[in-house]
Amino acid sequence: MPAVNMAGLTTVPANPSVGNAVLMNPFSGPKGSPFDAKTANGYTSNGVPIRVADPTNYSTGACVTGIGFGPGNVTGPTAPQSIKDGGFNDDYTPGINFFIPSSSTMQTATTSVLVAIGGGKSTATIDGACPTVPYNAQPLLNFGAGGSRDAGAGPAFTGFFEKMVTATAPVANGGVIETGFVNRVSDGTGGVFPAVTIQTGNSAFGSSTAASAAIV
After folding, report:
1. Quick check: 186 and 204 in contact, CB under 8 A?
2. CA 159, 142, 3 angle in degrees (round to 5)?
3. ∠ at Cα 30 (27, 36), nearest 5°?
4. Are 159 and 211 in contact (CB under 8 A)?
5. Who contacts 125 (Cβ-Cβ below 8 Å, separation ≥6)?
6. Labelling 201: which of 34, 128, 166, 210 has CA 20 to 30 A away?
7. Residue 101's CB: how many other CB atoms inside 10 A?
């Protein structure tokens, strides 16, 4: 559901970056995404809502629990054992990677079934049949602690995902933890930049500097 970013401003712009770092839904969190700034205006012959732009209806990003995951997760030295002790795995991308009992190797999802029931999409036909046609694989996205929720104008509607990475030196807010991933860890107390400096050997979910894949 759309939500004001925790500890951010009560009235926020359409693309907030203040407040604690939080997770958001890739399908309705990024600016301009299918359920952001749009209002239903009729239906197609197949019963699909027709959504039109509504500048009075901007959300601040659809927050998700992402139970157990978040930019605030920090584990102590030394990787990878400390990461496993914290219940995670090195280079793990929530929403993309998973494990199966028959293999010790981290798997990569090819559809969005890890973040949405049935993969987030079905195709309705006139005769009432609704076969499941999942969206492509989508990671959980994050924003806050200075990080934007918007990776650019539509129609791609993308944001910034996270991955478990390890610091080789102290990393302040916004600094590079590993190539392509920056520190957006919050201490949970609120404020404009409630940031935590990650120490040498610590691991955390770093925020990607590259946009997530377009939803198709």
Report:
1. no
2. 100
3. 75
4. yes
5. 46
6. 210
7. 5
Alpha-carbon distances, residue 20 vs 37, 84, 190 (angstroms): 23, 25, 6
The pTM for the full model equals 0.80
CA distance 104 to 99: 7
In whole angstroms, what is the distance from residue 186 CA to residue 120 CA?
Answer: 30
Q: How far apart are CA 17 and CA 146, in angstroms?
A: 5
Cα distances from 143 to residues 43, 57, 114, 134, in angstroms, run: 33, 20, 20, 25
Q: Encoding tokens for residue 59?
A: 């959300």
| CA-based torsion, 196, 209, 148, 107: positive or negative | negative
Q: What is the pLDDT of residues 32-66, one digit of tens each?
A: 666 666 677 788 887 777 877 666 655 556 667 66
- State the Cα angle at 125 between 2 and 110, rounded to 5°: 60
